[in-house]
Amino acid sequence: MNWTIIADSLPLYAQGARLTVLLTVSALAIGFGLSLGLALLRNSPNPWIRLPIASYTLVFRGTPLLVQLFLIYFGLAQFGLLRQSILWPWLSSPLFCVLLTFVLNTTAYTTEIFAGGLRHLPPGEIEAARAYGMSPWTIARRILIPAMLSRSLTLYGNETIMMMHATSLASTVTLLEITGVARNITLTSYILFEPYVTAAAIYLCLTFILVGAFHMAERRWVDARG
Amino acid sequence: MLAAYAMTVLGAGLVTLQLAAGALALAVLFGLAGALCKLSSSVVLRTLAGIYTSVVRGIPDLVLMLLVFYSLPTLVNEVLTAAGISYYFELDPFIAGTVTLALIFGAYMTETFRGALVAIPKGQVEAARAYGLGPMRTFTGILLPQMARLALPGFTNNWLVLLKATALASLIGLQDVMLTAKGAAEATGQPFTFYLLAGGFYLALTLSSVLFLAWLGRRLDLGTRELSR
Amino acid sequence: MKPLFRLFGAAMLIASSALQIQPAAAQKVLTIATDATFPPFESIDSSGKVVGYDVELMQAVCDAAKLKCNIINAAWEGMIPGLIAGKYDALISQLTVTEARRKILAFSDIYDRPVFRFVAKQGATYEFTPEGLKGKTIAVQTGTPMDAFVTKTFPQADIKRYTSGSAPYLELASGRAELHMSYEAQITHAFLKSEDGKGFGLLGPRYTGKDAPEFGEGVAIAINKRNVELVKSVNEGLAKLRENGALAALNAKYFGTN
């Protein structure tokens, strides 16, 4: 066992953990905002609105994240037209591609989670709100979104953990988050045990923090409703 | 040339399917064992099952796969050498992939099966005991069939996630759809074409799984009825 | 019940005798790993087979030395640690013999002395000094001599590291990387001759082991340090191929030279 290499690389792991957290938080934050809107539209009676969203979530939930990442990072570069376009400075950055993939992926899952939370809402609640003369915007803000969020808190908690774990794939496109740091140490120090065990331990800690936070949130917002 | 690569990628679909099927079979066993442990009266078994599910679900799938493929044999062999045993322990990418996915989805199945078993009214077990059925007969004759029906939605979900997670085995060198697609992408300089093909393969699998399991769900629900409200 | 039992007994007998014969008669099959992302030396062909110069060479060495070899594709990051841990018996992957690697691995005799070059868009000019490459993006495969060299020599360059030997070419073609450093023979035969390689060319100095220690003594087959026997038989195999002209024929087949 050679733990001195690990001890020497702890600053690298710390940097990696920062990138992991940064990727997780930004993907989840952007995905959350997009999903709120998409979830409301997902249950729309108009098929022209409902079906495109349904197909989007179907494709992104039906294929591996690794395929999506490689399609966006390596695949898009195949098109000369795109390489000359104004989008290319963005698309040529691995960080941007990774974030774009993660956002598209987590938004697909979160949209379905939120839309599912909404589907079991008793119609009476909305009818009552209409009877009170609330505008559609007010109904969404005061009734639909709070109901949606509290009903899907557990599933959304799982999704945040999944997303945090999914960031480990960023190591496949040169980013040095926790897994990337571990893979790099095996390549330069030729040890196979210590780097991955260390990475696993860091992920476990991060997961337990997330789980704890969601338990607290559930006690605060879900149990309180009775 | 492109067509030959495309055929190889799709041909590797067999490897992906074998990996998924092998991992699923093992995961169901792990899940059943885990669920029974979690519901057992023994504190030790409950604690062990609890540690298993929370540790496995607390580590990213990719990291767990790297751990099983690279770190585990290293550790085992160091222990064997220290003990003076000249046996060499080794896992190839297929076995390491199967074991890792089985461990991960065994943990998810544990929760799915536990939830389903809890949902079966206790009175049924008591009635079975009163009729003189042994614990084994009670489990296989009364609990298992109902559990299968109740666990189906969760099972479907786990299977879909498992199918997609098989792609990670390409990162430890298994020649599955993903790795052959990567090879073809790099050899032909057409990454979009081949990753799209790989994506299409997984999508076709997940879609047909959803349709099949939905049909199975309707079959299993035959003879049950919703309580009138 | 009885016939079934007897059948079972017979099956056990056959199985156990088969097991007893196996170790005595069969020679251990050696697992030899290669990172098949480095054409024309090692790559996966359109039918999914591991092919290339190194693969043919290894097979010929095994035949000449009467070894049973199974050459498999392995992920680059796990290859050297995997050899040390005993996961693989040997590695053939255009591995450069360097002082750092000699400390942890045993090597066969050297079978080739590569030249290392940069490749970039034709017409582009760079000054190959730390100042001249400041801020330029250079793609390399992680943990290779090229990685070690550019990391040390051009610290102000933007170095992008990939775990596959082929990915840098996709990055070069897409414009994500301006420069890539690799073996001259690999750049010429795998990239410049391909569709994607149009408009690209070799540039900069022709580096060899004499220019920097990172480029090592040449390439060889890597073997576990404890396995002195295998080093000996591989070297015998290599010597035979040198004598009977098979090595020269292989060079001619792949590179038109000897």
Automatic annotation (TrEMBL), chain A:
<dbReference type="InterPro" id="IPR043429">
    <property type="entry name" value="ArtM/GltK/GlnP/TcyL/YhdX-like"/>
</dbReference>
<dbReference type="InterPro" id="IPR000515">
    <property type="entry name" value="MetI-like"/>
</dbReference>
<comment type="similarity">
    <text>Belongs to the binding-protein-dependent transport system permease family. HisMQ subfamily.</text>
</comment>
<keyword id="KW-0997">Cell inner membrane</keyword>
<feature type="transmembrane region" description="Helical">
    <location>
        <begin position="20"/>
        <end position="41"/>
    </location>
</feature>
<dbReference type="GO" id="GO:0043190">
    <property type="term" value="C:ATP-binding cassette (ABC) transporter complex"/>
</dbReference>
<keyword id="KW-0812">Transmembrane</keyword>
<feature type="transmembrane region" description="Helical">
    <location>
        <begin position="86"/>
        <end position="104"/>
    </location>
</feature>
<keyword id="KW-1133">Transmembrane helix</keyword>
<protein>
    <submittedName>
        <fullName>Arginine/ornithine transport system permease protein</fullName>
    </submittedName>
</protein>
<dbReference type="GO" id="GO:0006865">
    <property type="term" value="P:amino acid transport"/>
</dbReference>
<dbReference type="Pfam" id="PF00528">
    <property type="entry name" value="BPD_transp_1"/>
</dbReference>
<feature type="transmembrane region" description="Helical">
    <location>
        <begin position="53"/>
        <end position="74"/>
    </location>
</feature>
<keyword id="KW-0472">Membrane</keyword>
<keyword id="KW-1003">Cell membrane</keyword>
From TrEMBL, chain B:
<dbReference type="GO" id="GO:0022857">
    <property type="term" value="F:transmembrane transporter activity"/>
</dbReference>
<feature type="transmembrane region" description="Helical">
    <location>
        <begin position="155"/>
        <end position="174"/>
    </location>
</feature>
<feature type="transmembrane region" description="Helical">
    <location>
        <begin position="49"/>
        <end position="73"/>
    </location>
</feature>
<keyword id="KW-0813">Transport</keyword>
<keyword id="KW-0812">Transmembrane</keyword>
<dbReference type="InterPro" id="IPR051613">
    <property type="entry name" value="ABC_transp_permease_HisMQ"/>
</dbReference>
<dbReference type="InterPro" id="IPR035906">
    <property type="entry name" value="MetI-like_sf"/>
</dbReference>
<dbReference type="InterPro" id="IPR000515">
    <property type="entry name" value="MetI-like"/>
</dbReference>
<keyword id="KW-0472">Membrane</keyword>
<feature type="transmembrane region" description="Helical">
    <location>
        <begin position="194"/>
        <end position="216"/>
    </location>
</feature>
<comment type="similarity">
    <text>Belongs to the binding-protein-dependent transport system permease family. HisMQ subfamily.</text>
</comment>
<feature type="domain" description="ABC transmembrane type-1">
    <location>
        <begin position="13"/>
        <end position="213"/>
    </location>
</feature>
<keyword id="KW-0997">Cell inner membrane</keyword>
<feature type="transmembrane region" description="Helical">
    <location>
        <begin position="12"/>
        <end position="37"/>
    </location>
</feature>
<dbReference type="InterPro" id="IPR010065">
    <property type="entry name" value="AA_ABC_transptr_permease_3TM"/>
</dbReference>
From TrEMBL, chain C:
<dbReference type="InterPro" id="IPR018313">
    <property type="entry name" value="SBP_3_CS"/>
</dbReference>
<comment type="similarity">
    <text>Belongs to the bacterial solute-binding protein 3 family.</text>
</comment>
<feature type="domain" description="Solute-binding protein family 3/N-terminal">
    <location>
        <begin position="29"/>
        <end position="258"/>
    </location>
</feature>
<keyword id="KW-0732">Signal</keyword>
<protein>
    <submittedName>
        <fullName>Amino acid ABC transporter substrate-binding protein, PAAT family</fullName>
    </submittedName>
</protein>
<dbReference type="InterPro" id="IPR001638">
    <property type="entry name" value="Solute-binding_3/MltF_N"/>
</dbReference>
<dbReference type="GO" id="GO:0030313">
    <property type="term" value="C:cell envelope"/>
</dbReference>
<feature type="signal peptide">
    <location>
        <begin position="1"/>
        <end position="26"/>
    </location>
</feature>
<dbReference type="Pfam" id="PF00497">
    <property type="entry name" value="SBP_bac_3"/>
</dbReference>
